[in-house]
Each structure stands twice: as structure tokens, then as C-alpha cells.
From TrEMBL:
Keyword annotations from UniProtKB, A to Z: Membrane, Transmembrane, Transmembrane helix
Family annotation (InterPro entries): ATP-NAD_kinase_N (IPR017438), Diacylglycerol_kinase_cat_dom (IPR001206), NAD/diacylglycerol_kinase_sf (IPR016064)
Native source organism of the sequence: Streptomyces mordarskii
Family annotation (Gene3D superfamilies): 2.60.200.40, Probable inorganic polyphosphate/atp-NAD kinase, domain 1
Keyword Membrane appears in the UniProt entry: yes
Record-annotated membrane-spanning stretches: 7-27, 33-54, 61-79, 85-105
Domain named DAGKc: residues: 120-251
Protein name, entry field: DAGKc domain-containing protein
């Protein structure tokens, strides 16, 4: 854990508290109405999107208008109430709090380094290149010439027939039989998967050169998709990783296999010419089960009946981060990711507001998945390639089956940020990192702060084994011996359980409310100061105590 993690967690606590306080301070009881209106507008928007997808003609047009008008109406209502700026500021602070909290949790965990080992350069490498992938990247970047200059044998596929699976697999098998000690592909994920299966079968390392359009496999390996020629460095200065491979029957997939609506849409001959029009034309019947397969999916002891879309992935995708959706934090977890969506009504579409807890959304991990239908065949998208396969289909994962050779110097995989957990953020905010001794994170042992007593008879301890007994002045620190009558020292043992600090915080909260004297701004100011002091580590508490004491004297004079 870095020293920035606790401070970022403290920022998250302060920003989250300010977001709530501003909403309550300026909207009062109307804040409940504001939240209800916002949630209702979002639900109506999602319902409008659903109706847009499942209808055609005038109904689709009206539903699209509703989906756009609902959020606009919510903003107009906020503006008419004079609270639009309050909502925007509160939302901005809340977004800052969540982003800071997730960043702090990611820093606490630290980046995960994949297991890699240095290896000697190959002696007889063999690369297969697809000249049509990525709009002709292979020829445009001169990849065959650069690879041959590094000693590799290069086979360029026939531009008129580049997608023949038997031809690609046959080339790879023949190369291994002739003594190739490394296989590689410059092309899209579909071609990568075909040759990766041959490499895994014969135990030879595999090189990925991202010359396709998207190249999600290269992205999750941490390769530079913008400069495919940089991946050729793996031939001379490379390291080796062990990653998993997914299988659907006997066919390998490096990314995912999709079933349901998307797989059926991409099967249409018109999809390549006009993707949007074809999708909108086919979706109504697919989403309402008028056409398309009635899927039954069994994964890890769970059965999903008639989902509209199913995605089985080689290692799970990030689902807690919309910005990171489509990326996998690791490729060696040894499990498949399963994501299934079942939405049969506008109410269920609105229920997607609950995120991972939505009843129509299933996200799980397992080692094997079975997909069945009433029909003898089912359309499937395997690494973006449209196929039609016989049912039932069995998907499983082969842990560590593929040896991947990557450049030693590469961009790497950015660390994923975990889901927001306010309890962990609060605990992290109370953590001090020792950097001088290198002994790692620890909790502060003792933290004292001075507050006014609510007409308590004498000064008594409120924490520790002597709760309720009078304080011994000799036990106080020199800077605390000037405490006048009517004050006590609240000791929060941060090294103990967090709930003790919570109880201490509740007690001091009652005192702070008394000190505010009923003034609204005084209450908010003292409450925020209490929060900041709780978030500060001991080295910063002395200055905060001074500020607090001065503010308290002014507010009570």
C-alpha cells in the first residue's frame, strides 16, 4: 500500500459527507423529493429505451422521445425549484467521493504483477499474417519485412481467402512438424484463437501481434495495440506468461463466446453492410422471443432459462466499472466468466438501476458452462466470428494452457479498481503508512482530542478499561494539562476494533451539536471538522486541534 491511499480515502469520506450535507442543508426535507424524482426519471428513461428496442414504427418513435424527455424534465423541475445547482454540486462531490474511494482501495491492494519469466530467444519462429485484418495493417506497417529481419519465417495468407480456418490451422500444424519452436499471428482475435489452440496443443510459445481491428486479447495481455510492430520485440527480448484458454466444444476462444441476441444479429448477411439498421430491425423479435433460440444455460449449479443474451468469457470481465467493461484484469484465474441478461418487460429494464443486484442480471464464475436449446443448432459468436454449432454446447477452461511470449517492455495491464466499499474506505482512512522504517501500514495507537462536556459531573474516562472513572491529571500529556473544568479527553484506540472509534465518534458528535448552539452553519462547520480530525493521522491532529479550539471559542463566546 502506498502512502497516498489513506489520504485518498480521507478525501473520499470528506467529499461524500459534503455531498450529503449540501443536499440536506440547502434542500432540507425536499432532498428526499429530489432523490425520488431523479430515480424516477432514470427508471422512465430505461423503460423508454426498452420500448424503443422492442417496438417498431410510431411506438418506437414515441418511446425514443420519452427516453430523451424524461431526464430533461427532471432537470427542468430541479431548475424551477431553484435547486439545480445543489443537485449538480452534490452529484459532483459524490462522484469525487466514489472515484477517490475506489482509487484508494486499488492503491491499498497494489498492482498485481503477472508471473513472468525470462526466456531465450526462439531459434525457429514462424509467424502467420492476415493482410486484410485491421484495414491492411500488415502491409501498411511492413510487418512481414520486419519479422523476417529478426529471423522469423513468415506466411502471408491469401487476401482472397484469409479466413479459412482449416488453412490457418494447417499452416500452424505443418510449421510445428517442421521444427518451429514458436508460433505467432498478426491478425484479429479469431485468427489468434485458431493458432493459439495449435500452440497450446504442442506446448510451443505463442506471440500475439495486434494487427486486427479491436484485438481484445492483446489489450488484456498489456500489449501496445497502436504499434503492432513493437510486439515483434518478443522475438529478441521477451518474457513468457502462462494464460488460460477457453473451449467451446473442441474450439478454442481467447476472449469470449456469445449466445442469444447478439450472436443472432451478427449472423445476418445484412449486418456487415448496415449494422445499426440491421440490429434495430432484428432486435424486437429477438428480445420478445418471437424468433431466435430459447436458451437454457447451466453454470456453476445455477440454471438460467430463456435469457436474451449470454456471454461466456475466458476469465471474467470487469463488471463493477462501466469504463472498464470489456477488459479482464487477469487471464490466469482458471475460471470462466458468465454474464446473462434476462429482460422481459419495461419494469425489469428499469430494475437494471440496481446494477449487479438487478434480478434480470446474472454475473458469476465457473469452470464449465452448458448451453442448450430446443433447436439442433444455435448461432454463436466466437471471438467475433459468427458460427452455427450443434447443441448442447459445453464450455470449459484450460488453466495455464497457453505459453505467451510478450515483449519485456510493454504498456502492461492497468490495475482494475474494486467496487466501492465504504467500510473499507473508512478503515483505510484511519491507517498510517510507515515509510521510513519500511514496516508497512499500521493503525495509530492513541489519538486524543479535547471537547467540551455536556454538563457532566466531573471529568471521566469514556474509553478504555477505566470507563466511567475520573481521569487522573497526572496521566495527561503536558499539552493537555491546560484542560479546564468542563472538558474531558476522548481517547480513541485506533489499533482496536473500528466499532470503538464509531462509538467515540457518536459521542463527540453529540458534543459538537451542543457546541454549535443551534446555528446551522456552526453545526455544519463543527461536524465537518470532526470528520476531518477523524480522518487525519496523528501527525496532523495537533494543528487541527488548534484550529478546532479557536473556532469553538468563537462560536461559544
Amino acid at each position: 500500500m502506498t502512502s497516498a491511499a489513506p489520504w485518498t480515502a480521507r478525501l473520499a469520506l470528506v467529499a461524500g459527507a459534503m455531498a450529503v450535507v449540501i443536499l440536506l442543508l440547502f434542500a432540507g426535507a425536499r432532498s428526499v423529493v429530489l432523490v425520488a424524482v431523479g430515480a424516477g426519471g432514470t427508471a422512465v428513461t430505461l423503460a423508454g429505451v426498452w420500448w424503443t428496442l422492442v417496438h417498431r414504427g410510431p411506438v418506437r418513435a414515441l418511446a425514443a422521445v420519452l427516453a430523451v424527455a424524461a431526464p430533461v424534465a427532471v432537470l427542468v423541475l430541479y431548475a424551477l425549484a431553484g435547486l439545480l445547482w445543489v443537485v449538480l454540486v452534490s452529484l459532483a462531490l459524490w462522484a469525487l467521493a466514489v472515484a477517490s474511494g475506489r482509487f484508494a482501495l486499488a492503491e491499498e491492494t497494489g498492482p498485481r504483477r503477472p508471473g513472468e519469466r525470462r526466456v531465450a530467444p526462439p531459434e525457429r519462429s514462424y509467424l502467420i499474417m492476415n493482410p486484410r485484418s485491421g484495414g491492411g495493417k500488415v502491409d501498411r506497417l511492413g510487418l512481414p519485412e520486419k519479422a523476417e529481419a529478426l529471423g522469423a519465417r513468415v506466411a502471408v495468407l491469401d487476401p482472397d481467402h484469409p479466413d479459412q480456418a482449416d488453412g490457418v490451422v494447417g499452416l500452424a500444424r505443418r510449421a510445428v512438424e517442421e521444427g518451429a519452436d514458436l508460433l505467432g499471428v498478426a491478425g484479429g482475435d479469431g485468427t489468434q484463437a485458431l493458432v493459439a489452440g495449435v500452440a497450446a496443443e504442442h506446448g510451443v510459445p505463442f506471440v500475439v501481434i495486434p494487427a486486427g481491428t479491436r484485438n481484445h486479447f492483446a489489450l488484456d495481455l498489456g500489449l501496445d495495440r497502436d504499434d503492432p510492430s513493437a510486439c515483434l520485440d518478443a522475438l529478441t527480448d521477451g518474457v513468457e506468461l502462462r494464460v488460460d484458454l477457453g473451449f467451446i466444444g473442441e474450439r478454442v476462444f481467447v476472449n469470449n463466446a456469445s449466445f442469444g441476441a447478439y450472436a443472432a444479429v451478427v449472423q445476418s448477411p445484412a449486418y456487415r453492410d448496415d449494422k445499426v439498421r440491421t440490429t434495430l430491425q432484428l432486435l424486437p423479435d429477438l428480445l420478445t422471443h418471437e424468433t431466435g433460440p430459447d436458451l437454457v444455460v447451466r453454470a456453476g449449479g445455477r440454471t438460467m432459462d430463456r435469457p436474451q443474451a449470454v456471454l461466456v468469457s475466458n476469465n471474467p470481465y470487469r463488471t463493477g466499472d462501466p469504463a472498464g467493461l470489456g477488459r479482464r484484469p487477469r487471464l490466469d484465474s482458471g475460471v470462466l466468466g458468465v454474464l446473462a441478461v434476462t429482460v422481459d418487460s419495461a419494469a425489469q429494464a428499469a430494475g437494471l438501476l440496481r446494477g449487479r443486484n438487478a434480478p434480470g442480471l446474472v454475473s458469476t464464475t465457473t469452470e464449465d458452462v452448458t448451453v442448450d436449446t430446443r433447436e439442433p443448432t444455435v448461432p454463436v459468436g466466437v471471438d467475433g466470428e459468427p458460427l452455427t454449432l450443434r447443441t448442447p454446447l459445453h464450455c470449459h477452461i484450460a488453466p495455464g494452457a497457453l505459453r505467451v511470449r510478450v515483449p519485456r517492455h510493454r504498456p502492461g495491464v492497468p490495475a482494475g479498481r474494486p467496487a466501492m466499499d465504504w467500510h473499507r474506505v473508512r478503515r483505510l482512512a484511519l491507517t498510517t503508512v510507515r515509510t521510513a522504517t519500511g514496516r508497512g501500514p499500521h493503525r495509530s495507537r492513541l489519538w486524543r482530542m479535547r471537547v467540551r462536556v455536556l454538563r457532566l459531573p466531573g471529568r471521566r474516562e469514556t474509553e478504555g478499561p477505566g470507563v466511567g472513572r475520573p481521569l487522573d491529571p497526572a496521566a495527561l500529556r503536558p499539552e493537555e494539562r491546560d484542560a479546564t473544568a468542563g472538558h474531558l479527553v476522548v481517547e480513541a484506540q485506533l489499533g482496536d476494533a473500528v466499532h470503538r472509534l464509531h462509538h467515540a465518534g457518536a459521542a463527540t458528535g453529540r458534543v459538537v451539536r451542543h457546541l454549535a448552539g443551534g446555528g446551522r452553519w456552526g453545526l455544519v462547520g463543527l461536524w465537518l471538522m470532526e470528520l476531518v480530525v477523524h480522518a487525519m493521522r496523528p501527525s496532523g491532529c495537533r494543528g487541527m486541534r488548534t484550529v478546532w479550539a479557536g473556532w469553538r471559542r468563537r462560536s461559544t463566546s
